[in-house]
Amino acid sequence: MRRPRVGHIEFLNCLPIYWGLARSGALLDVELHRAPPDQLNHALVQGHLDIGPISLVEYLRHSEELLLLPDLGVTADGPVLSVNLSSKVPLAESGPNPTVALGSTSRTSVLLAKLLLEQRYGLAPVYHEAAPDIDTMIASADMAVLIGDEALKVHFGRGEDLNLSVLDLGAAWREWTALPMVFAVWAVRRDYAAANPGLVKGVLEAFLSSVELSRRELEQVAAHASRWEPFEAVNLVDYFHKLWIGLGERHLSGLREFAAQANRYFDVPPVAEGGPEFFAPT
After folding, report:
1. Quick check: pTM over 0.90?
2. What are 110-116's contacts with CB under 8 Å, separation 24+?
3. All domains of the chain in start order, with CATH
4. Which CDD domains match (predicted)?
């Protein structure tokens, strides 16, 4: 029997979920595929992966094919640090039709930015896609939406270097709705779960154990990451505290609210009645 094909986002935000896997040897039990979020979204939907992270928007579009894994999501109940909108002037001073460069690596964060700009702040922006690099993005637009490690660089100094106003989109969502934001979830293909429930249960248990270990060893996780990323360990500890790997009832309320807003204003299906559906280990 082949090993489960499992996706791994190439961003710091997912390091806590894989920290313990490497420590325990559980990575030997899976076929790990590292890629940017948009590639992993496509691979899971197309059946090239069995289990993996998927952006919330893509999960909503393909929920009939997927089951969520319990207690696993990339979430923030306030500032997230790694999802932001950078602008040449504060939003309050912006004209009604700013140009906005969209980093093309996260459909959920892009949609969140559009919801906030259009529905909360009442703007009518003109959007275009761009490679996720703040220097080139802000050279071609009034504002730029970035996620992941590039957004962290903006938060931890690059935004100040460029004299930019930086809005944390996790904090903006929390202020608007009083709910957490769910950026991504972990899911398993329904057909794979039906055929291999024991393997899926094993992967889920390994993930949850890894997250718990990372929470206990957060300073070690941050120190390890700081050796190969351009961030100080103390800043990464702050980041990992704000970015929560989990999916409790409060997060699910935020998920449903985002889905309802996205359905109201954009072409995104709502959460099915009684949903979302989870893989149920036996």
Report:
1. yes
2. 110/145, 111/57, 111/262, 111/266, 111/268, 112/83, 112/169, 112/173, 112/181, 112/258, 113/85, 113/145, 113/169, 114/265, 114/266, 115/261, 115/262, 115/265, 115/266, 116/85, 116/169, 116/172, 116/173, 116/176
3. 5-75+182-265 (3.40.190.10), 83-177 (3.40.190.10)
4. PBP2_Sco4506
